[in-house]
């Protein structure tokens, strides 16, 4: 595996973890994991709209990075190897 593939794997893994964490931080209906994590991060009375917009943007960016690195990795992965 070349240097490009190693860099892609690292970026892919970081973007996967970031996407999972950002999705869990979205506010839900008040129950579940998203409420436990995100409830302490912002006050529902002040600025939650701005926080949600930024959270949406970060989620979309991290998911797009994940998808792009996945496609590039699929094209550059050496054929016939398992590791």
Automatic annotation (TrEMBL):
Main subcellular location: membrane
Membrane topology summary: Multi-pass membrane protein
Ranges annotated as spanning the membrane: 6-24, 58-77
Short name of one Pfam family: SecG
Subcellular location: Cell membrane; Membrane
Keyword field: Cell membrane, Membrane, Protein transport, Translocation, Transmembrane, Transmembrane helix, Transport
Purpose: Involved in protein export. Participates in an early event of protein translocation.
Similarity comment: Belongs to the SecG family.
NCBIfam families: secG
Name listed for the protein in its UniProt record: Protein-export membrane protein SecG
Organism: Kribbibacterium absianum
Gene (name only): secG
């Amino acid at each position: 595996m070349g240097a490009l593939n190693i860099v892609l794997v690292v970026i892919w893994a970081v973007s996967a973890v970031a996407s999972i964490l950002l999705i869990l931080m979205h506010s839900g209906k008040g129950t579940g994991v998203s409420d436990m994590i995100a409830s302490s991060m912002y006050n529902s009375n002040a600025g939650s709209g701005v926080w949600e917009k930024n959270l949406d943007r970060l989620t979309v960016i991290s998911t797009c990075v994940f998808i792009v690195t996945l496609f590039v990795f699929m094209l550059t992965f050496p054929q016939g190897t398992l590791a």
